[in-house]
Design goal:
By secondary structure, this protein is of the alpha+beta class. It is 61% helix and 11% strand.
Length: 410
């Protein structure tokens, strides 16, 4: 039965059995004790009869025959009846029987008292331990209801109650996980709102200023044209900012599902730079591609192309006119790697550990710190690659260029 799986219950039952066995031993001792008492009573009784008969001149032979005789006769029954000695005679009038009764009752009372005392002590100990377990469970569950999941109910023992404790601990773990998830969600929303608010202040303030300038000089065509173009740039910046923030928010909330399939690396790379070649040409920068057209990669095409595009944009932002961005890849049985290198300004040692942090623009001044990036391209690229089970590493030297390595494990 399952109730015997529990150690305390099992020990209690074993103790009860031992007490019962102890009672049997005492009863055996009682039987031996009663035998001795009866024997002494009969010997004492025979001695009294013998003494009375000897005093009345009865021969020893007749006394011996009388004491050892086992036959009964009607005359003996009538004589004893006249003397008031029958089976219904009250034991108080039979000294030897009364003495035996007193001694037997005393011994039985002692045996019974010892048995019930041991049983009572055992039950009290068992109930006390149970009460302590229940009190601890109540305290722990009370802590759970208050949001404190630091303590746990005992669950490393067998038994139904410990199975119950195990289920309660599982429930507490689920509640703790839910609490932590809710806390993370609140922190995420708080940080996201703070980031959006902070990042929108500058372009919105610029838009407000440009609008006021245009309103002040509505008939100055040149002024209207200049500040309309600046307004358009600010609007584009806001759109990029909101789009990137929404994408990162989707990654943080776990709502992105990657639709992976097998594609050639060549088509992924060309898709990623499709909208950047014109910019590179306009800025007098070169983007070159080097890799086998047969090499393939298992990934989400759209998201991977966006990650590559963000890294190439970063390279363009930090490369001067006449610079060169090179995209290469290689396949192995274990992984596929894509290398994006530039010969731009590079990243300082102080900055390289923070480049995947949102809105990070660098703490060491360089000639390219004033680029138009919003500081979300690399964090988004990192989320995309890691979301597909890969990783991004970077090597850079200040004023000597940077290489990003994207690794996709097979």
């Amino acid at each position: 039965m399952s109730i015997f799986y529990e150690k305390e219950t099992r020990n209690f039952c074993v103790s009860v059995v031992l007490i019962i066995l102890f009672l049997f031993v005492l009863e055996t001792i009682l039987c031996i004790y009663q035998k001795d008492i009866i024997q002494k009573i009969f010997v004492s009784h025979d001695q009294s009869i013998t003494a009375a008969l000897l005093e009345n001149g009865v021969s020893e032979k007749i006394i011996a025959e009388s004491l050892t005789n086992t036959t009964k006769s009607p005359q003996s029954y009538e004589l004893l009846n006249k003397l008031g000695i029958t089976e219904k005679t009250d034991s108080r009038f039979l000294p030897f029987v009364s003495d035996f009764q007193v001694k037997s009752k005393t011994f039985i009372f002692l045996i019974t008292s010892v048995f019930f005392l041991l049983l009572a002590i055992l039950i009290i100990i068992f109930l006390y331990k149970r009460d302590q377990i229940y009190k601890r469970a109540i305290q722990t569950v009370t802590c759970y209801t208050k949001g404190d999941f630091s303590s746990k109910l005992p669950q490393l023992k067998n038994g139904t109650i410990y199975h119950l404790f195990n289920s309660i601990n599982d429930m507490a773990a689920a509640l703790k996980s839910k609490q932590e998830a809710e806390h993370k969600t609140k922190e995420f929303l708080k940080n996201m709102i703070s980031d959006i608010s902070h990042q929108l202040k500058t372009p919105l303030a610029a838009l407000k200023m440009y609008n006021e300038i245009v309103l002040d000089e509505p008939y100055n065509t040149e002024t209207v044209k200049i500040f309309t173009e600046k307004s358009s740039s600010s609007i584009i910046r806001i759109e990029q900012l909101i789009s990137s923030l929404l994408k990162i928010a989707r990654f943080d909330s776990g709502s992105i599902e990657f639709n992976k399939s097998e594609y050639t690396l060549n088509e992924i790379v060309y898709q990623s730079i499709n909208e950047l070649t014109t910019r590179a040409k306009h800025e007098n920068k070169e983007i070159s591609i080097n890799g086998s057209v047969k090499d393939k990669i298992f990934c989400d095409r759209q998201w991977t192309a966006e990650a590559l595009s963000n890294i190439v944009k970063n390279a363009l932002d930090h490369t001067d006119a006449g610079g060169h961005i090179k995209i290469e890849w290689k396949n192995s049985p274990i992984f596929t790697q894509i290398f994006i290198s530039d010969d731009g300004s590079g990243i300082s040692t102080e900055d390289i550990h923070y480049i995947f942090k949102r809105f990070y623009r660098g703490i060491v001044p360089t000639q390219n710190n004033n680029t138009s990036g919003i500081g979300l391209g690399l964090p988004l690229a990192n989320s995309i690659i890691e979301g597909q089970g890969g990783n991004i590493t970077v090597k850079s030297e200040l004023n000597a260029g940077t290489t990003f390595t994207l690794t996709f494990f097979k």
